[in-house]
Automatic annotation (TrEMBL):
Biological processes per GO annotation: DNA-templated transcription
Protein name: LysR family glycine cleavage system transcriptional activator
Protein family per UniProt: Belongs to the LysR transcriptional regulatory family.
Alphabetical keyword list: DNA-binding, Transcription, Transcription regulation
MF-aspect GO terms: DNA-binding transcription factor activity; sequence-specific DNA binding
InterPro entries reported for this sequence: LysR-type_TF_proteobact-type, LysR_HTH_N, LysR_subst-bd, WH-like_DNA-bd_sf, WH_DNA-bd_sf
Annotated source species: Pseudaminobacter salicylatoxidans
Domain called HTH lysR-type: residue spans: 5-62
Gene3D superfamilies listed in its UniProt record: Periplasmic binding protein-like II, Winged helix-like DNA-binding domain superfamily/Winged helix DNA-binding domain
Matches recorded under PROSITE patterns: HTH_LYSR
Length: 300
């Protein structure tokens, strides 16, 4: 049997490839940037294979590195599931979750079966809520709230799930039929899908110093999920992000016409709960949720 490389080196490389930057990988593993870099270099030397290619936008994997990272992510996930299953019997009861509709539909619901496999005695109730107002969430009888926006919820325990990165998405058919779509300025020549307030594209254009008044918005939808559905249907170009659009990008139902992105403090998902409300089941779900979000949050 071939001798395996050190576990720490494999863990460092997997985190670096999944998170896409030294700082994110170091934060996740609670080590220094230098430690991550050293472990990855040692792994490359051990395998006699180049695994990463650095660019101006962070760390990109070579094809060999991508294949190895995907297999390591699955392997570490199986190890984590095995360890969690040892004490799954101590967790039971019902957890009520209030969640933004887009996040529930696009991301949470497809992953709940994984949690139920780990903790079969915990029942999950999901309530859809679009409001992140402090008074509104107090009126919802939920154990945990998955919220989008700025972390302005006084008297609550707040845990960052992920910072969102936003970027244009469209169907492959639209991408192939639109000539000259190579930069942000080119978007003014094509139909854009937005929310009723027009803020999704306004924020995007403003981040590049552009006035959005000339942008064409023939379709507007209240919910982010509907915007993505309209993009899949070929109605135009919508705003996607690295969480909600991830399933469609992975499956090829949506594509990114170019790589320009925006990222702001207000564009993030948070896990919010009442102080002192965490029990063993809530803690298990919260930790699982954070771990799954970390796996997802790398840009496709």
């Amino acid at each position: 049997m071939r001798e395996l490389p050190p576990l720490n080196a494999l863990r460092a490389f997997e985190a670096l490839g999944r998170r896409g930057s030294l700082s994110a990988a170091a934060d996740e593993l609670n080590v220094t940037h230098g430690a991550i870099s050293k472990q990855v270099k040692q792994l490359e030397g051990r395998l006699s294979t180049r695994l990463i290619a650095r660019s101006g936008r962070g760390v990109e994997l070579t094809p060999e590195g991508r294949r190895l990272m995907e297999r390591l992510t699955r392997a570490f996930g199986q190890l984590d599931a095995a360890m969690q299953s040892l004490d799954a019997g101590a967790h039971e009861g019902t957890i009520t979750i209030s969640c933004m509709p887009a996040l529930a539909s696009n991301w949470l619901i497809p992953k709940l079966e994984q949690f139920s496999t780990l903790y079969p005695k915990i029942d999950i109730v999901v309530m859809a809520s679009s409001s992140a107002d402090a008074n509104a969430i107090d009126a919802i009888r939920a154990d945990l709230h998955l919220l989008y926006g700025r972390p302005d919820w006084p008297g609550k325990e707040i845990r960052l799930l992920t910072q969102l990165t936003l970027f244009p998405v469209c169907s492959p058919g639209v991408a192939n039929s639109l000539p000259g779509l190579n930069s942000v300025q080119d978007l003014f020549n094509y139909p854009l899908i937005d929310n009723p307030e027009g803020t999704q594209w306004r924020d995007y254009f403003l981040s590049y110093g552009l006035d959005d008044s000339a942008a064409r918005r023939p379709y507007r939808f209240q919910d982010f999920t509907l915007c993505l559905a309209a993009a899949r249907a070929g109605l135009g170009i919508a705003m996607g992000d690295n969480v909600n659009a991830e399933p469609d990008l992975t499956a090829g139902r949506l594509v990114r016409p170019f790589r320009e992105t925006i990222r702001r403090q207000s564009q993030a998902y948070y896990l919010v709960s009442r102080p002192g409300s965490q029990n063993a089941s809530l803690t298990a779900f919260s930790n699982w949720l954070v771990a799954e979000m970390q796996k997802t949050a790398t840009l496709p």
